[in-house]
Amino acid sequence: MSRKMLIKPFASIEAAALAPHSWRRRQVLRAGASTLVLALAGPKLAHASSVLGVRVWPARDYTRVTIESDQPLQNANQLLQGPDRLVVDLSGIDLDQALRDLVSKIAPNDPQIQSVRIGQYQPHVVRMVFDLKGSVKPQVFTLGPIGSYKYRLVFDLYPAVAPDPLMDLLAQTERKQEALDRANPNPAVPPPATLSGPATAQKPGTPDSTDEFFQKYAQGDAPAETAPKPSVKPQRAPTPPPVIAKKDDDDQYTFSAPKQAGTTRLLTVAIDPGHGGEDPGAIGGQGTYEKHIALDIAKKLRAKIDAQPNMRAMMTRDADFFVPLNVRVQKAQRVSADLFVSIHADAFTSPDARGSSVFALSEHGASSAAARWMAAKENASDQVGGINVKSQDASVNRALFDMSTTAQIRDSMRYGSFVLNEIGGINKLHKGSVEQAGFAVLKAPDIPSILVETAFISNPDEEARLNDDAYRDKMANAIMKGIKRYFAANPPLAKSRMT
Ligand SMILES: [Zn+2]
Q: Which sequence ranges are marked TM in the entry (predicted)?
């Protein structure tokens, strides 16, 4: 095969016309039986960067545009007003079909971008103009090769006014809170000593002491399990709050903690679907993406939580976009979540690995080599998903990650045990106990936090299960039951109203 034949199908017309004879060095990579990819290198050929992919991840939080290339792309950008637009000049590159495709990749409902215009501005300089729907705060940064990605140039377009998870949640659950207030007009009836013993845990009209919830107290583990934790939540009321427990038709317990004297608050669960956007997570042999599985189970869990009269869910992401690990933690803290659950379906080096796992944070090293390996893999999400390490937020929030407490870990282990127990009813367990390792996403110092590996996507049988809607529903159900059991055994403390 002659050189000409090799080059012809892949080089853009412009590039071929501009410098056909200056291509001194070519690398031909075999990327498949019939596919050849040309990569051009050499100092005189700097303009010949190839675009390998253009991706757009629209979301309310921010819209990301990624341009992936075989060499780092030089860029200059300028934010202009009247109308709002971001002008970007990419140098060392010629307009090709991959870049042109960006135009059609902007969805009409993109929260930030109205449209994009693209053209060959000068020789080897491509100009892109993002017409914006409003004022944005762009972050433009580059990422080096990692995983299957080559060089990425990233445009994160944040709305000037960021959506606030707390305000969103309050708006969504205002009526529910009112209904709960009406249902519990005066929950402060039991004396404050409620949590110190079994007898006082009852209030008029509550189920008798044969109920599991009250048996817990009678078994004498109540003081340790339910005592207030000033070291964890020092800003909250020092007096143990009264707790109301009711048994419904479904043989499930409902319980609620007072918000302030005389009112009852909704219990908030932060649900964190792992990965997203540029970070696909693990990919199964049949092409199943962990990020999609995680999001679906999370949505199912959200629906179950929101169906409870006394609970509400906040999702760290509810679409296919990347959320940095510390932002996931911040969102949970912003809504003062009572619990945090991160949902995953990871791969292992061996396709034989199977079974579900539940992880909590560890204070002194991982509980096993596999747990350490898994935490390292999950923590790499920020590199694959791509964070701007130079941004102020990143450095400010790194400090947060060193504030984990023993109390949080102790509560997370209890919470994890309840969830693991329920998951054991629907899938084989990878290990019979909650494992521990340094997962960055579990580091909210004041929120019991667990990470559930719902199954191994790398195991063909388990990948098939993960693709089964009924299994995903069972998984969401098991997590839900574990959460309810944890709340019943460890009633959350009173929190001040969040508004
Ligand atoms: Zn994962």
A: none
Q: How far apart are CA 138 and CA 116, in angstroms?
A: 15
C-alpha 359 – ligand 1 centre gap (Å): 12
Question: How far is the centre of ligand 1, averaged over its atoms, from the C-alpha of 292 (Å)?
Answer: 11
Closest CA to 53 of 156, 174, 191, 148: 148
Tokens 């509550």 belong to residue: 206
What is the distance in A from the centroid of ligand 1 to the CA of 276? 10
Q: Which of 271, 310, 275, 314 is nearest to 293 (CA)?
A: 275
Q: Could you tell me the distance, in angstroms and rounded to a whole number, from the CA of residue 457 to the centre of ligand 1?
A: 10
- Measured in whole angstroms, the distance separating CA 376 from the mean position of its chain's CA atoms is 16
**Which residue reads 């590159």 in tokens?**
93
Measure 462 CA to ligand 1 centroid, in angstroms: 15
Q: How far away, in angstroms, is 343 Cα from ligand 1 center?
A: 7
Classify domain 53-159 by CATH number: 2.60.40.3500
Q: pLDDT tens digit string along 58-93?
A: 999 999 999 999 999 999 999 999 999 999 999 999
Sequence letter at residue 9: P
Cα of 152 vs centre of ligand 1, distance in Å, is 22
**pTM, full prediction:** 0.76
Summarize pLDDT for 366-393 with one digit per residue, the tens.
Answer: 999 989 999 999 999 999 999 888 765 6
Pick the CATH number of 164-499 from 3.10.310.30, 3.40.630.40, 3.40.50.620, 3.40.50.300: 3.40.630.40
User: Lowest mean pLDDT: which of 203-207, 244-248, 404-408, 471-475?
Assistant: 203-207
CA 404 / ligand 1 centre spacing (Å): 21
The whole-angstrom separation of Cα 304 and Cα 481 is 10
Q: Dihedral of CA 287/291/296/301: which sign?
A: positive
Cα 456 to middle of ligand 1, angstroms: 10
Q: How far is the CA of 297 from the centre of ligand 1 (A)?
A: 13
- Segments making up each domain of the chain, as ranges: 3-45, 53-159, 164-499
